[in-house]
Design a protein that fits this description.
heterodimer, A: about 260 residues, mainly alpha, elongated, B: about 200 residues, Rna Polymerase Sigma Factor, Chain: A, Arc Repressor Mutant, subunit A, 2 domains, 9 helices
Chain lengths: ~260, ~200
């Protein structure tokens, strides 16, 4: 056994934790090596000096001070517990906020439900006819009737049968995402004419035929805008479609009001 | 005694502050001495002692009883002491160590004044050697030679294997041997009664 290996084991040798065969090897080396013997003696002396550090008595009154600190710390936590614990948890709080927002949205949406049910069948044919015949009219319309006609057109475009929708030009979509309705232009009086527009007999249906939607969408999918195509494929009713559009994040981003959609 | 300790811990976990007080009285001297040898100052050691028991009280519900309460407490103490050293990066001056040594000498009324002085100088030199060691080696020497913990207990306190501890403890002792080396001859010449071997300090067994 080399000196290096013996010195690495000297600590365990001092504590008597070496296996018997290893201990015998170390002992044999120490008997023949004065340097390693001196190393062992030096280590034992050094460690022996630690015995002068007697246990010290800690300052008195430690427990009283600690007890006071514990009670001080527990007091505010007890006070916090008077507030229902569930309120501070994020998931119930988020759920409560979600329910509240949904309730507000439903209440806000409520009065317009009648229009949603009535407008699509009445409005759709009128707008689509205009679009197919003279596309510039759809662009010109907002100049005279800023909010309601465009909104009705947008709603109608999304709920109308696919034959009419596919004929819509791209500007129709741009007109449907106007930033915000302007109350000063008085859109409300302009809306009734849209509602009173007589339906065209061939397209005035509240429940569109899904098969017809499928056929037209598959044939002209290049000209369909995506939401309209999706509606056509799923055959959603106007009420559900309006609600889905209203909950669309894009609508939130562009800050489209309920009037625009409905 | 172990059953008594277990009973006290259970009562403390149930919110009995008096039971926790009994645990404090039983184990806080050991924690104080560990902290004192780690930081070299009574004032800082007292702060550490309080912090250790404050944390222990806060974490008492997490104590599962898999290790002994004293081992769990030493683990907290070692962490708090090492954190404190890291945070403050203390450089204990020779004057401060001398002051601590005098404080200890005041409690040492054995022998004649010359012997007391020699012991005081010896304590000062040994504490200075400890302070000269890297903290992660110092804690090993303190746990083994001041607190008198076994290898198994030290491994549990520090969360390491026995194999790792064998190596680390040897390096720590080697570090201390080098640190105390310059003082060793003076200590022996002064006639300080330097006993050999570690001593048990705490009510661990």
């Amino acid at each position: 056994m080399t000196c290096r290996r013996v010195r690495k084991r000297i600590s365990l040798y001092i504590d008597g934790r070496l296996p018997e065969d290893v201990r015998a090897g170390v002992q044999c080396h120490l008997d023949s090596c004065a340097d390693c013997r001196a190393y062992l003696i030096g280590m034992e002396r050094a460690l022996g000096t630690l015995a002068v550090l007697h246990p010290q008595t800690p300052p008195a009154g430690g427990w009283e001070r600690l007890r006071q600190r514990i009670e001080e710390q527990e007091a505010p936590s007890r006070a916090r517990q008077t507030v229902p614990a569930w309120w501070w948890r994020p998931v119930p709080a988020a759920a409560a906020a979600g329910v509240l927002i949904a309730a507000i949205v439903l209440l806000w949406q409520g009065p317009s439900d009648e229009n949603v049910a009535v407008v699509p069948p009445a409005k759709a044919p009128a707008v689509t006819v205009e679009n197919t015949t003279s596309p510039p009219d759809a662009v010109r319309e907002p100049e005279t009737l800023p909010a309601a006609p465009a909104a009705s057109a947008a709603a109608a475009a999304r709920t109308a049968p696919p034959v009419s929708i596919t004929a819509q030009p791209r500007p129709q979509r741009v007109a449907s995402v106007r930033p915000r309705p302007r109350p000063s232009v008085a859109p409300a009086p302009a809306a009734p004419p849209a509602l009173e527009t007589p339906p065209a007999p061939e397209t005035a249906r509240l429940e569109p035929d899904p098969e017809e939607y499928m056929a037209s969408a598959s044939g002209l999918d290049e000209t369909l805008d995506e939401p309209a195509a999706e509606l056509a494929l799923t055959g959603l009713t106007p009420l559900v479609a309006a609600a889905e559009q209203y909950m669309d994040p894009v609508a939130w981003v562009y800050d489209i009001s309920a009037e625009d959609w409905l | 005694m172990e059953q008594d300790e277990k009973r006290l811990v259970e009562k403390a976990q149930a919110g009995d502050l008096d039971a926790f007080g009994e645990l404090y009285e039983r184990f806080s001297p050991g924690v104080f001495n560990l902290a004192l040898r780690m930081v070299g100052s009574r004032e800082d050691a007292e702060d550490i002692r309080q912090e250790v028991f404050l944390r222990a009280h806060r974490a008492l519900k997490d104590f599962k009883g898999e290790a002994r309460f004293s081992t769990w407490l030493y683990r907290i103490a070692a962490n708090v002491a090492l954190d404190e050293i890291r945070r403050r990066k203390p450089t204990v001056s020779a004057d401060a160590l001398r002051e601590e040594s005098r404080w200890e000498a005041a409690a040492d009324d054995q022998g004649d004044p010359q012997e007391q002085l020699d012991r005081s100088l010896a304590r000062e030199a040994v504490q200075a050697a400890l302070m000269a060691m890297p903290p992660h080696y110092r804690i090993l020497v303190v746990l083994k030679h001041i607190e008198g913990l076994s290898y198994e207990e030290i491994a549990a306190v520090l969360g390491c294997t026995l194999t790792s501890l064998n190596v680390r403890l040897h390096r720590a002792r080697e570090s201390f041997r080098k640190a105390i080396g310059p003082h060793l001859q003076g200590l022996e010449e002064s006639g300080s009664d330097l006993p050999t071997g570690p001593k048990k300090n705490l009510a661990l067994y």
